[in-house]
Amino acid sequence: MSYNFIDLFAGIGGFRTGFEKNEFNCVFSSEIDEHAGEMYHANYNETVFKDITKIDEKEIPNHDILLAGFPCQPFSIAGEKKGFNDTRGTLFFDIQRILKEKKPKAIVLENVKHFKSHDNGNTLKVVLNALNELGYTTSWKVLNAKDFGVPQNRERTIIVGSLNGIKFDFNKLATQEPIYIKDILEDDNGQIEYLEENDYTIIENQKKQSSGLIFAGYRNKKIRTKGTRPDTLHLSRVHKQPNRIYSSNGTHPTLSSQESSGRYFVYHNRKVRKLTLKECYRLMGFEDDFKLVGSKAKLYNRIGNSIVIPMVEEIAKQVKNQILNKTDDIIKCKKPIKQISLFDFINEKLAG
Predict the structure, then answer these.
(1) Residue 272: beta bridge partners?
(2) Tens of pLDDT along 45-85?
(3) pLDDT value of residue 232
(4) What's the pLDDT score for residue 78?
(5) Helix pair angle (92-102, 122-133), 10° resolution
(6) Sequence-ordered strand ranges (E) for 224-264
(7) Over the stretch 157-167, which tens digit does the pLDDT of each residue have?
(8) Coil, strand or helix: which one is 52?
(9) What is the CA radius of gyration of the chain?
(10) CA-CA distance, 40 to 302, in Å (whole number)?
(11) Are the C-beta atoms of residues 292 and 262 closer than 8 Å to each other?
């Protein structure tokens, strides 16, 4: 059976793609960033509604599931109350008013890893309280993209809620054996950007971290000399992500929404090369035919703000199996109550 969903704070459609691959149908989407909206239109032939705060919730089509990678904002009241009073002035308020009006069967929300500890845990507490007040049974977990078939260590907080009382079981998500950066690299077609040997330092005894990352070295590009100890001139660069170099035999660190230059360097076949734009999109699970529109700087910003598609695919599959299909089964199994008159009721009791 096919189910309908709405895609809020849609970005470039990572959520949408993952759910559409499980035969879900998008009936409404919203994204305020103009460039993201252009990419969304180019790939899905659909114009997004820009400002979610400006739409009347009654005008949004009915749907079975609400999807939202909503912004992380502090709430003014420290979780002392429940519901709308805690979230006014935040974009989560708009999710609430849509849920209250449309009552979809399920919701899936996504945020950064540290959402669980944001504002000393108050933000997560307020969100869960608000959803519970609206009748949703909720569960949440921090998931890592590297467990779902992409070589990127990218952790995200996922919240799933159901209106039928079913508590989503994250343990039923099917994970995959890890793959590595080298598995998604393009062939060298003469367009790969390599660093000169004197521009970087490769360290010995490279070790794989628990995250799957293998730190291989750093670019020889100093940013300060004052207060630097002898023979440590370049080490200050190690603390800046764009200057770290990772082995292609491991996973890649989280792609950043702030890295508009795409300064991601890997040590591969005894050379240091920059990841191509296509490779960055592969790290998020986008297919090569996904249309890239606009400047490179904007395209790097968009990818860092997206969600990993294979992880979404598995979530979509389990939301359908655990919540939506069971909701429909419950409805089908409910038998109508037999209506009888008082006279017939008395006769039935006397007869037996």
Answers:
(1) 267
(2) 999 999 999 999 999 999 999 999 987 766 544 444 444 55
(3) 55
(4) 41
(5) 10
(6) 244-247
(7) 999 999 999 99
(8) helix
(9) 25
(10) 11
(11) no
Q: Are 73 and 90 in contact (CB under 8 A)?
A: yes
What is the separation of C-alpha 92 from the centre of its chain, rounded to a whole number of angstroms? Answer: 16
Separation between Cα atoms, residue 51 and residue 344, nearest integer Å: 59
352 vs 348: CA distance, rounded Å = 6
Q: Which of 26, 72, 280, 333 is the catalytic position?
A: 72
| Per-chain mean pLDDT for the chain | 88
Burial classification of residue 160, based on how many CB atoms lie within 10 Å of its CB (0-12 exposed, 13-18 middle, 19 or more buried): buried
Contacts of 192 (CB under 8 A, 6+ apart): 186, 273, 274, 276
Q: What is the pTM of this model?
A: 0.87
Domains annotated for the chain, with CATH where assigned, are 3-171+307-333 (3.40.50.150), 187-275 (3.90.120.10)
Beta bridge partner(s), residue 201: 218
Pair 212, 250: CB distance under 8 Å = yes
Q: Is-contact 28 63, C-beta < 8 A?
A: yes
The partner residues of 162 in beta bridges, in order of sequence, read 106, 137
CB neighbours of residue 1 within 10 Å: 8
Is 72 noted as a catalytic residue in this protein? yes
